[in-house]
Design brief:
Length: 173
């Protein structure tokens, strides 16, 4: 079993809690910009795999506790992973934003369509039905995440956080 240190687990739990609370109590019709903000933050701080897990947990909580559709999960996990992957490969913050917007705004929007037709009985239209809703939401949230991470970077706290997460002795999950 792969080991994840306690600080990373705690950071993941805090981001999941923050994402769930923000998405539940700050509501925008047909949008979840705070999910995308958390995706970018998790991608930069925790990486692609834990960013994916963070999005999956937030989406699952939103489905179970709030009655959201499967869009809460599908609409976030691809963007979270791609955001983390783009950041990991380039170490450029703007690439985390690009990964989030492409992953969620385009890929997740297209992947979500057949699920909504088959599981929720929506009438067949175009596979691009959700793209106009997903792109503005993911762009808005990713930009908020970018601004927050940039402010951490300018104060030197981003590097300290990353070093702190990597320095702790690994412990089993």
């Amino acid at each position: 079993m792969k080991k994840i240190n306690l600080k990373k687990q705690t950071t993941l739990a805090m981001l999941v809690a923050l994402g769930y609370v923000l998405n539940t109590f700050v509501y925008f019709p047909r949008m979840a910009p705070f999910q995308h903000m958390i995706n970018v933050i998790a991608a930069v701080i925790l990486g692609p795999t834990l960013g994916f897990v963070c999005a999956l947990l937030i989406g699952t909580l939103r489905m179970i506790l709030n009655g959201n559709t499967i869009l809460a999960v599908i609409g976030a996990v691809i963007g979270a992973y791609l955001s983390g992957l783009c950041y990991k490969k380039t170490q450029k913050l703007y690439m985390a934003v690009v990964g989030e917007v492409i992953g969620t705004g385009i890929i997740s929007a297209i992947v979500s369509y057949p699920f909504m037709v088959h599981f929720y009985g929506l009438p067949p239209t175009s596979m691009f039905t959700y793209v106009p809703f997903f792109i503005p939401s993911s762009l808005m949230g990713a930009v908020i995440g970018y601004v927050l991470i940039k402010s951490l970077e300018k104060t030197g706290n981003l590097q300290k956080m990353k070093q702190s997460l990597e320095s702790e002795r690994s412990q089993s999950c």
